[in-house]
Records
---
Amino acid sequence: MKFDVIIIGGGLSGLTAGIALAEAGKDVALVSAGQSTLHFGGGSLDLLGYDEQGNEVKNPLDAISNLNGNHPYKKIEDVSRLAGVAKKVLERAGIATAGEANHNHWRVSPIGALLPTWLSLEGMATVEDAGTMPWKRVALVNVVNFLDFPTKFLAAGLRNRGVEVDVKAFTLPELEQLRKSPTEMRSTNIAKVIETNNLIAKIANEVNDIAGGYDMVLLPAVLGIGSSETSRHLLKAIKVPANYVATLPPSVPGVRMQTLLRKRFTALGGTFFTGDQVIEGNFEGDTLKGVKTAKLDGTTLEADNFVLATGSFMSRGLVADYNHVYEPALGVDVEDLGLDRNTWSKIDVTESQPYMEMGVKTDSCLRCQRAGNTIANLYAAGSILGGHNSIKRLDSAGVDMLTALQAVNNILK
Ligand SMILES: Cc1cc2nc3c(=O)[nH]c(=O)nc-3n(C[C@H](O)[C@H](O)[C@H](O)COP(=O)(O)OP(=O)(O)OC[C@H]3O[C@@H](n4cnc5c(N)ncnc54)[C@H](O)[C@@H]3O)c2cc1C
């Protein structure tokens, strides 16, 4: 089977690249092994939250120009333009977001921290300025016995910023069914029960009964797996201003993003090989001719260009053994930290962890290398790239989407 481009990995970076290429009229196939880390995301997309000195960033575009030379943003020709393109890619997939690349706002994390971010999905709780809280009295309204919405942490975080917080909870007979098995009481299951049983009006009644006198109601983001319609309806039906806060994983807004991006990719004519894994590349000199997958026995998927977007350690885009870190699908070169494993991490977990900076080696056009040679038609995008610490910088989604779009531009040139 032959395509114009094959994308390996179906997370945020792979899907962004796939959609942008399909929008440009390319015949694209995407092979993806399993769930992506979007399922863990917080309902916001970060561009650059903290600079290299650890200071909060107000204007990511300004701060990006001061990053060190290894950061993946240094391989992006026009960060501002591509940030605008990224927002439009999401919009056309049905993912409405608020936010601008030159002006961070602050999202409320599942454990009550306020974090600088770039784009937030509609309905998510955000504030314009972390120094001036817009809410005086907040009701944190949980579903009874839902443990992945840590209200104690959330309340403490908001109270530390001078907000008066009351913790409340509601339940309905349909939700009580889930409580019979504690493992069922997860965000995605709650979303399914609410949507299947059409419980929005009932939930709005419950919340309205307890929401009087508050200037903000914060709810766990457990609505809208397939689209934001139900989550939007609930907020409209609540009589005071209300927003959602991301829960601990699985993240319903993250699953929704994954679903909508995938839908958009296939609607554009993209071919999705789901639940399959690239296990080998067929290289001829400095060109990748095709890839073999675990399930398509005997068939090579061929293309003119390839994008490697298999993620970092969590998604097995990178793998560590006792002696080295390697890229398992195509055997491309990895920027690691040498053989001494003791240098890979630090005992104090709050410190910047060196392994976070590991990633595949690329040239200035994001092309991978293999045994020291640049592969002319193999580009890397997303969290498989090294050169930055996404936890310390809060720059994950920006790196994923912008490197994907830059790789696409380089392919289309
Ligand atoms: C707990 C958590 C919370 C987060 N919250 C946020 C947030 O609030 N905001 C934010 O901006 N970012 C957040 N992130 C980071 C963000 O989710 C990731 O940076 C981003 O999703 C990575 O995208 P990716 O496409 O590069 O890789 P991944 O999402 O890891 O996707 C890679 C995909 O490739 C597949 N794959 C791997 N190997 C192969 C193979 N050989 N063949 C085929 N497929 C393969 C994997 O199965 C996976 O589906 C969070 C991450 C985590 C873990």
---
Amino acid sequence: MNSESTSSPARNEIFPGEVFVNTADFDTGIRRLLPKYDEMLDVLAGCIASNHHRILELGCGTGELTLKVLECYPSAEIVSVDYSPRMLDFARAKIESAGYASRWTGIELDFGEWANNPNFSGLGDKFNAGISSLAIHHLEDEMKLKLFQRIRESLTAGGCFWNADPLLAESAAIKDIYQAAREDWALSQGETLAQVRASVGTSVAYGYSNPDRLATLAAQLEMLASSGFETVAVPWKYYGMAVFGGFVN
Ligand SMILES: C[S@@+](CC[C@H](N)C(=O)[O-])C[C@H]1O[C@@H](n2cnc3c(N)ncnc32)[C@H](O)[C@@H]1O
């Protein structure tokens, strides 16, 4: 765990991954900040099979991916983990008002803690699927690998794990290309990227998470393969964002 990282940040600072100073700004702000956010989450939701009933979600935030999955799969039950009580409160309110409360359990927990502590059993039985969006890139690479291993151990045979996350560009030139795509996207939404970023907060390290610790797609696919995912794939990629993951036998 990061040293000096366990106390709550002052309220004008935010946990890594909360993104916006006001949690209420997240759902509209994230769609301006990131190109094709809904398309990315829709692809991720589509990678789950209808017989993947028990699903673990890491870093649910305000529940946007959670809701898409609960809507798509009427028999799905999701256990969502997030370390931010503010984000969990928003997720809970939206899930309750959508009528899905009986199929959702929200747990306030640092997923780095779960990955790092093999004796931690608070999430119950094995899962048919694991999902995550825009959260795991806050872990150091060593912890990403530990988390992928823990997810692999927590899946039933035939289970899958899908992650949507920003990627480390493979070179400075490619970073410029990815950045230009972000700028174009913001302009297409009627603002410059700098204007969209005005409502983004300053995050400090908290628990196992840090401000962005991006890894390349190749490095993360290698981590998944070495964690025991037999089939590894990238069903969606748009410049510096991807949905990637795989299946276990
Ligand atoms: C950018 S939000 C994404 C939320 C949602 N998955 C989405 O796509 O809209 C990232 C979420 O991950 C959570 N998060 C980041 N690091 C975490 C950790 N180590 N343990 C638990 N939650 C974490 C943050 O609190 C935040 O709610």
